[in-house]
Design a protein that fits this description.
Length: about 180
């Protein structure tokens, strides 16, 4: 079962929390984003209503509709957790969710558009932008000082820029490393 369009992966389930169906979540990003959600999309289960969310260090414990036992919570271990992009709480100016980066143009240091962001992948040690360009598709590390997320007047991301410090060949037109 594939996550619906316009959803963002927020983390994955670690295992039971307590004996009444609570599940610990490893959160990608800020755990606060999970505390106000009314529903989540669970890999293998679909949309589930959030009965209660508790902050844990580090992460969150979720109590979901239909899960009332430790054994039931155990069945979610390792499953990915998503939220509808529209359900996520608004962020302060200058902060953004990764789904806000999808569809943004990617510019080189000279300002020329060289590609477009199609997704963001959590690769564990660093996040990667999936960028389509003339040579195909590449993973671009979302890492300062090589990549800058530019924001518009409303404080929302509107472009990705590769800096002069970025290693050559990140988005090689022929798909080969320089």
């Amino acid at each position: 079962m594939t996550a619906p369009a316009d959803t963002t992966r927020l983390g994955y389930f670690l295992g039971p929390h307590g004996v009444q169906g609570g599940v610990k979540v490893y959160v990608l990003g800020d755990p606060e984003q999970l505390l106000t959600l009314e529903r989540v999309w669970v890999e293998g289960r679909g949309w589930l209503r959030v009965r209660r969310a508790e902050p844990l260090v580090p992460g969150v414990a979720l109590h979901l509709a239909g899960l009332t036992s430790r054994e039931g919570a155990e069945t979610l271990r390792g499953a990915n957790l998503y939220a509808a992009d529209a359900d996520l709480p608004p962020l302060d100016e200058g902060r953004y969710y990764y789904h806000d980066l999808r569809g943004l143009p990617v510019h080189d240091a000279d300002g020329e558009q060289v590609g477009e962001v199609t997704d963001v992948v959590d690769a564990g040690h660093q996040d990667l932008l999936v960028v389509t360009h003339a040579g195909g598709e590449s993973f671009l590390p979302l890492q300062a000082p090589y990549v800058v997320v530019r924001t518009g007047e409303a404080g929302r991301p509107d472009a990705i820029t590769l800096t002069e410090d970025a290693p050559s060949g990140l988005l090689d037109e022929e798909g080969e490393e320089a």
